Amino acid sequence: MQLTKHAHSCLRVEHDGGVLVIDPGVFTDPAALDGADAVLVTHEHPDHVNVEALTRQLDRRPIPVHGPASLAAALGDAAEALDPIQPGQSFTAAGVPVRAYGGRHAVIHPDIPVVDNLGYLVDDRVYHPGDSLVVPTDVRIDTLFAPIHAPWSKFSEVLDFIREVAPRRAFALHDGLLNANGFAVLDRQYTALSNCEYRRLEPGTRIAA
């Protein structure tokens, strides 16, 4: 299985000829969707789903979009492609086994509504939590993509999340709002304190899983 980290929170998974794209949001080049056989969306916020780009892709080639049922309202005409997923559900996307975790987005502020959010465990190896710090307790995670920076998080919480998941390796996710100064600080801190192999991948970097 090959993983490509695209900008911000987007991952592209290639496995046995199938292509699965997770969270192709507005910070991500729409080309990340090229050739996709299925899409996973963790939640409805635009940095995780670019509805315009996704709709264009669906017009070219209809493919399933898996995500929370509440995603339908944000998708508009593209909602007909939605396969609603529930927390705890196991399913197959682009030929790859997937399990959903969580259910709710992390709280940004009490005045901001909390939306549905699913974390996805891909092939029992790779975990993408979306905008949450939900820890799967029924499986050992090999590769974690950790949301290192967000309006709803702070460093200590994300660090404790990585330590609790205890993966073999962790990669930075949800990093599209950072500049070089922020990367320098967080790369150093997460590398020193995560208790696992930690790296931040430049957009377009491809790794084996």
Give the topology:
Blueprint: E1 2-5, E2 11-15, E3 18-22, E4 38-40, H1 51-60, E5 65-67, H2 71-75, E6 82-84, E7 90-93, E8 96-104, E9 116-122, E10 126-128, E11 143-147, H3 155-165, E12 169-173, H4 180-193, E13 197-199, E14 205-208
Parallel strand pairs: 3-4, 4-5, 5-6, 10-11, 11-12, 12-13
Antiparallel strand pairs: 1-2, 1-14, 2-3, 7-8, 8-9, 9-10
Key words describing this protein structure:
209 residues, alpha/beta, Metallo-beta-lactamase, Chain A, 7-stranded mixed β-sheet, 14 strands, globular
Question: What is the count of distinct domains?
Answer: 1
Element order, helices and strands? EEEEHEHEEEEEEHEHEE
Principal-axis shape: globular
Instruction: State the CATH topology.
Output: Metallo-beta-lactamase, Chain A
Radius of gyration from the CA trace? 16 Å
Q: List segments where confidence is low: pLDDT < 50 over at least 5 consecutive residues.
A: none
Neighbour order of strands in the largest sheet: 6-5-4-3-2-1-14
Count of individual beta strands = 14
CATH class equals: Alpha Beta
Give the name of the CATH architecture: 4-Layer Sandwich
SS field, number of helical segments: 4
Q: Strand fraction band?
A: 25-35%
**Major beta-sheet overview:** 7 strands, mixed
Mean pLDDT: 97
Q: What is the helical fraction, as a range of percent?
A: 10-25%
Structural class: alpha/beta
